[in-house]
Specification:
The complex is a heterodimer.
Chain A: H1 2-5, E1 8-11, E2 14-17, H2 20-42, H3 50-57, H4 63-98, H5 110-124, H6 131-161, H7 167-189, H8 192-202, H9 211-232, H10 235-238, H11 242-247, H12 252-274, H13 280-292, H14 299-319, H15 328-346, H16 348-351
Antiparallel strand pairs in A: 1-2
Helix pairs in contact in A: 2-3, 2-4, 2-14, 4-9, 4-12, 4-13, 4-14, 5-6, 5-7, 5-8, 5-12, 6-7, 6-12, 9-12, 13-14, 14-15
Chain B: E1 5-14, E2 17-26, E3 32-36, H1 43-50, E4 58-63, E5 66-67, H2 73-79, E6 80-83, H3 95-100, H4 115-127, H5 143-156, E7 161-165, H6 173-190, E8 193-197, H7 201-207, E9 210-215, E10 218-224, H8 225-228, H9 231-238, E11 240-246, E12 253-260
Parallel strand pairs in B: 3-8, 3-9, 6-7, 7-8
Antiparallel strand pairs in B: 1-2, 1-4, 4-5, 9-10, 11-12
The chains are: A mainly alpha, B alpha/beta.
Chain lengths: 353, 263
């Protein structure tokens, strides 16, 4: 009965169950992420030792150091952490709710849908003049609409075809192709300037992002977490299948819709801020699940591992071929694509049903 | 006091076909009832209609006088537990993690693991003989043990009605007895009303007090085991000529199928 007694913290009506291994994995991921962030803040044309970076962060340093580290590099680091966390939570929720280890917002076409929405605003909205408001409000809103449209399309198609095995991925490819085509058409129809701006955005890069984007993603993450705290408590039960969950008193359709809506927000808003970043949403939850040895990816651990993953990818993107900067999305794809292949090979028996 | 179901003229349609076609019956309180019949006769659909998972197209299913669809899901889950046929657990899920979910209807999101939860989960494991397997992943267990873990989940719900859809599917004979003995013991000790769908007639005759026999969505016979397990009813329900004997040990009927009935 050891596993029964030792793992609860109780305070009046509140009781929390925790597992040493999940806490350990989360703490390690957080510590490594912080260390990596400090190192990344000091790397670039202007170099600073980690000790110096910490001093600047705490209010020290000269004007040049403060300008480079706080104004130029810090937003990029913070947005990497936030976007990584958002994507990982989104992926973890979609995987668990769909009971399919291959389901993730990028593979299902949600990210491409968000991309089409964002490009529509950049291109058709004449983003040139109204950059300020459009970038902080218009693009995220359009990305949300695009993301939800793609998610709704996937949901309808899966309802018709069934959602087991490889079907979600195949439907996702179709939906992605549709929204990708839409995006290409808009780029052709757009003026050269707008098209160039949109193309730069579409490669998925953390470069050139600043505090407005950080705020947008931060708000999306905060709101989603508020919604998710009560809803996520139902995830372990939902994972037993809709019949069992229903007989345990879960309002299955409402809960599922709420969870998936939060997941779409967590995929679409980051996409609007930094462009499509592939594979983090797929890989981070799997790493969290494997590291914690749990049946489903724990959300907090997934978020921290996602943040760490994107921080590391962005660092590689910045330094690997310096002074040439790679798009961050290219690095995550280089790591993520082999991982997807490995998942497909490993689970092929289950998927061929 | 145990709860009970009352069904009145219940119809469930899938497209043009009526899977359940006008069933009216009261489920006896505090007894073990088995629903039997050939494949596709609507027995699982009827059970799902009782469990709220299946909405009915006509008629009412009520629990202690209240239509089941009008009862709030969480409250319903504290009164009726359903174990679906061959439920699938995710990989790596341990027995204790599964059984813990049975406390869900009683929990708020900030209350994940109270002392009551702990005591009831321990009791559920004990009563189903699963204590020693508490920390084992489900996929490492035998079919019978796995099914007992699912029954422990339902037990942890602390309901006074337990619905089981084909609890012995895919199990060999020893495991079938293991599972049904566990169910029977829960019934005897706690007075839980049990309703289960069984396609195996001899198991139904052995473990149930009361039988409902269905064919083509209609209720053909309802009554005690001895009233329902007769050559005439079996001919109507399964289209098979049988000899029915009494087991000298248990006093329960034994069915010996002879030939297909000529229509």
């Amino acid at each position: 009965m050891t596993s029964l007694q030792r793992t609860a913290i109780r305070l009046g009506p509140i009781s929390i169950r925790w597992r040493a291994r999940i806490v350990l994995v989360s703490v390690i991921a957080a510590v490594v992420a912080i260390a990596l962030a400090v190192i990344a803040l000091g790397i670039g044309d202007f170099r600073a030792t980690p000790a110096r970076v910490i001093e600047v962060l705490l209010g020290g340093g000269d004007r040049a150091e403060r300008l480079v580290i706080l104004n130029i590099r810090l937003p990029r680091i913070v947005i990497a952490i936030l976007v990584g966390a958002c994507l990982a939570i989104s992926g973890a929720i979609i995987q668990t709710t769909a009971r399919n280890s291959l389901a993730s917002p990028d593979l299902l076409g949600v990210t491409t849908g968000a991309g089409a929405g964002a490009v529509a605003v950049i291109v058709l909205g004449g983003g040139g003049e109204a950059v300020g408001i459009l970038r902080t409000l218009g693009v995220p809103a359009a990305a949300l609409i695009g993301g939800f449209a793609a998610a709704a399309l996937v949901a309808i198609l899966l309802r018709i075809s069934g959602a087991s095995g490889l079907r979600p991925i195949l439907v996702g490819i179709g939906v992605s192709a549709f929204f990708g085509g839409l995006t290409s058409w808009m780029l052709i129809a757009a003026s050269i300037d707008d098209a160039e701006r949109a193309t730069a955005w579409l490669t998925g890069s953390l470069g050139g992002r600043s505090w407005p984007e950080v705020t947008t993603v931060g708000i999306a993450l905060a709101l989603s977490v508020i919604v998710l705290v009560p809803l996520a408590a139902r995830l372990p039960t939902l994972e037993l299948g809709s019949d069992v969950a229903g007989s345990l008193g879960v309002r299955v359709p409402a809960t599922t819709v709420g969870l998936l809506a939060a997941a779409v927000v967590l995929a679409a808003v980051p996409a609007s801020a930094v462009g499509p970043i592939g594979f983090v949403a797929l890989v981070a939850p799997h790493l969290a699940r494997l590291a914690c040895a749990t049946p489903r990816p724990p959300l907090v651990a997934s978020a921290l591992i996602g943040a760490l993953l994107l921080l590391a990818s962005d660092l590689v993107a910045r330094v690997a071929f310096a002074p040439i900067l790679l798009p961050t999305g290219a690095v995550t794809a280089l790591v993520g694509a082999p991982f997807l292949v490995w998942l497909l090979v490993r689970s092929r028996k289950d998927l061929l049903r | 006091m145990s709860s009970t179901f009352s069904l009145s003229d219940v119809v469930v349609r899938f497209g043009d076909r009526a899977a359940v076609d006008g069933v009216t019956v009261d489920i006896p309180r505090g007894e073990v009832t088995a629903i039997v019949g050939p494949n596709g006769c609507g027995k699982s659909t009827l059970l799902r209609a009782m469990s709220r998972l299946q909405t009915t197209d006509a008629g009412t299913v009520s629990l202690d006088g209240h239509a089941v669809q009008s009862i709030r899901p969480r409250e319903f889950a504290t009164r009726v537990a359903l174990l679906p046929q061959a439920p699938l657990a995710p990989d790596n899920l341990t027995v204790i993690d599964l059984v813990t979910r049975g406390r869900d209807p009683y929990r708020r999101w900030f209350d994940q693991w109270s002392r009551t939860d702990e005591a009831i989960v321990a009791e559920a494991l004990e009563r189903t003989g699963m204590t020693e397997f508490a920390d084992r992943p489900l996929e490492s267990l035998s079919g019978g043990q796995r099914q007992r873990a699912w029954i422990a989940l339902s037990f942890a719900q602390k309901t006074d009605v337990l619905l089981l859809d084909e609890p012995t599917t895919y199990l060999d004979i020893a495991h079938q007895l293991e599972v049904l003995d566990t169910v029977r013991a829960l019934h005897t000790d706690d007075g839980v009303t049990v309703v289960m769908v069984l396609h195996d007639l001899s198991l139904a005759a052995r473990y149930a007090d009361h039988l409902l026999a269905m064919r083509d969505g209609k209720l053909v016979a309802a009554g005690t085991v001895h009233e329902v397990v007769t050559p005439a009813v079996l001919r109507d329900v399964f289209g098979v000529e049988c000899t029915v004997l009494d087991d000298p040990q248990s006093g329960r009927p034994i069915v010996i199928p002879r030939t297909l009935s000529t229509p």
